Amino acid sequence: MTLSISATDAVGVTGYYASETSTTPTASASGWKAVTSTKSYSNSKISFTLSSGDGTKTVYVWFKDAAGNVSSPASDAITLSTGITFTDNGNGTVSDSNGLMWQQGENSSTYNWYVASGTYDAMYNPSSTSVCGSLSLAGYSGWRLPTFDELKTLIDTSRSTAPYINTTFFPKCPFIVLLVVHYQRLLFQRRVVRLFRQWLRQRRL
Please, what is the average pLDDT of the chain? Predict the structure, then answer.
């Protein structure tokens, strides 16, 4: 990440120290970055590497002058998210940072995903066709069922009892979310749901 820092000093700023630790460093501590002494220092292109793991990080910065004085810290909180992010649209759908829109389903509900081309049970016949493409939900068309890899993005691996569906955005559907919309329509293979459920069981062992 990039920091933008600035400081003024009557004697002259000679260095800065950036850390995620709130303990004030001594003037002789390792980790100080020297700068040409100046009474007014500013740099908007300071490279800083955050500690690993998603979540809120606080970065602290100190300055020192030619007399060895160390300033009080300046700090800022940063939320690090290296994975997929979600937005609740407030209409029964959730958008993600990959450009997909998900339906907020419920485990207790029954969903008809297919229309049979004959009189057989569409849920168990591979020649059935998806009816998601004709669905109109939240003002959108082009719905389809998700792929196996798309389903995996819903897992919240930060939970202590992982893996689970991200219950912040899918509170009524802890195991599987049913529909996803994208810019193209794809036929959904029943095998994807079976593989996803097997994958969930393996991860929970």
Answer: 75
